[in-house]
Amino acid sequence: MHGLGELESAVMDVLWRADGPVRVRDVRQRLDVGRTLAYTTVMTVLDNLHRKGWVRRELAGKAYRYATATSREEAAARALREVIDGSGDPDAVLLHFARSVSEHESSVLRAALEERRDER
C-alpha cells in the first residue's frame, strides 16, 4: 500500500483479513513475512500504524486490540488520490488511467460519476 513499508503493509493485510479487532500476538501469529518476528517488533509496527491513523485500538484488559481505521478499498483510493495529486499533471494521469480500464471498470466509473452529478 502506498505510503507504507513492507512490514506495515503485511500487518495491514492481516488486520483487513481479520473478523474484528485482534491482539498483537494474533497479528504476529498470522503474519507471513518469511521470518518470525519479535512480539515487540509487531507491537511497534502497530503503534506506528495507530500514530499514522491507519489503525484504531481499544484497550481490552491490559492489552490493546487493533483494527483498521479504513477499509482496504478506501486505503487504495486514498493512495490513488496521492499518486494523482503528486504526479505534476493530474489530467494526464487520469486520461492514461481512463484508457487502461476494462469495460466493467468503465461502467462502474460512469455510474459513480452520474451518482455524484445527481447529488449536486
Report on this structure.
This protein folds into two domains: 6-68, Arc Repressor Mutant, subunit A (Orthogonal Bundle), CATH 1.10.10.10; 72-119. Helix content is 62%, strand content 12%. The chain has helices spanning 6-17, 24-30, 39-52, 72-85, 90-100, 103-119, and strands spanning 22-23, 55-60, 63-68. A three-stranded antiparallel sheet has the order 1-3-2. Helix 2 crosses helix 3. It is elongated and about 50 Å long. The protein starts with 5 loop residues before the first helix and ends with a helix. The model has no long low-confidence stretch (mean pLDDT 93).
Report a brief summary of the structure.
The protein has 120 residues and is mainly alpha-helical. 62% of the residues lie in helices and 12% in strands.
Notable characteristics:
120 residues, Arc Repressor Mutant, subunit A, 2 domains, 3-stranded antiparallel β-sheet
N to C succession of SSEs: HEHHEEHHH
Look at the structure and name the CATH superfamily of the largest domain: Winged helix-like DNA-binding domain superfamily/Winged helix DNA-binding domain
User: Which regions contain 5 or more consecutive residues with pLDDT less than 50?
Assistant: none
Helix and strand content put the structural class at mainly alpha
For the record, the count of structural domains works out to 2
Give the N-to-C terminal Cα separation: 32 Å
Average predicted local confidence, pLDDT: 93
Oligomer: single chain
Strand arrangement in the largest pleated sheet: 1-3-2
Total count of strands: 3
